[in-house]
Specification:
32% strand; 3-stranded antiparallel sheet; alpha+beta; 13 strands; 6 helices; single chain
């Protein structure tokens, strides 16, 4: 009985002295009630995790921190195809950051998908691809108008031999205006959708027609997706190199 009473008393004592959070309505202060007394603790500011919408703003932040002796050392900028990240406390815990995220435009993402899946389109779907999904990337007179003018025609060949007779049929794609479809086109494609990053870049694609199936296919040429993406990232690197003052930029992730 005595042992049980002691344990019960210890439990009550521990509950009485356990800290109970108290909301003061001040995010800069944490408060607790311990044994009937209120204790206040000043909180440290959380590490910076800024998100910027322009590359120029990230460069301005980097230059500001590089010029501030209290920042603890020069900041570092990391960049790749997905983001540009400013690490403010590179000489410390590397928790203070500002990030400029990069996302692909709908047009570039569609071309990436075409390169992976290599789909074939009937005439109506191919017209929609050129007119809507890839709108603004190619003058209609180059390909769209020609695709609209395609008419499928049948050509029958009959060969009669001494002991046999054969019948063959070829399906051909003919344009009503007599012009052939181009075998290759160059699209003007913005890679990133972020503000000030939408400069169109040239991306070459092949145009394939399967007359037997009555289908079309548009495919980025080999390595074109990677090449254009590297050109877009090189533009970012050039601006970082030319405009950063006191901070260094590296290609990669922090």
């Amino acid at each position: 009985m005595i042992v049980e009473a002691i344990n019960r008393f210890s439990e009550i004592l521990m509950r009485a002295t356990a800290p109970v959070p108290l909301d003061l309505g001040d995010p800069r202060t944490k408060a607790y009630v311990i044994g009937g007394d209120v204790f206040k603790i000043a909180t440290e500011p959380s590490p910076r995790t800024h998100e910027v919408k322009h590359l120029a703003d990230l460069i301005a932040l980097a230059n500001r921190f590089a010029a501030d002796p209290a920042s603890g050392g020069p900041p570092v900028v990391w960049y790749d195809e997905s983001a540009v990240v400013l690490v403010v406390d590179d000489a410390g815990h590397r928790l203070e950051t500002a990030t400029f995220r990069l996302t692909h435009t709908d047009v570039f993402a569609r071309l990436v998908d075409l390169a992976k899946t290599k789909p074939k389109f009937d005439q109506k779907a191919f017209v929609r691809l050129l007119r809507i999904e890839l709108a603004g990337t190619l003058d209609p007179v180059v390909l769209l108008n020609a695709v609209r003018a395609v008419r499928w025609s049948s050509v029958t060949d009959v060969n009669v031999g001494k002991q046999r007779e054969s019948l063959g049929r070829d399906i051909e794609a003919r344009c009503v205006d007599g012009k052939d479809l181009p075998e290759e086109v160059t699209l003007k494609v913005p890679v990133f959708r972020q503000a000030d990053e939408r400069t169109p870049l040239s991306l070459r694609c092949s145009v394939e027609v399967d007359a037997g199936e009555g289908t079309f296919r548009l495919l980025p040429l080999p390595d074109e997706i990677d090449r254009v993406l590297q050109v877009a990232v090189a533009s970012i690197a050039e601006r970082l190199t030319g405009q950063l003052d006191g901070a260094t930029a590296y290609y990669g992730k922090p």
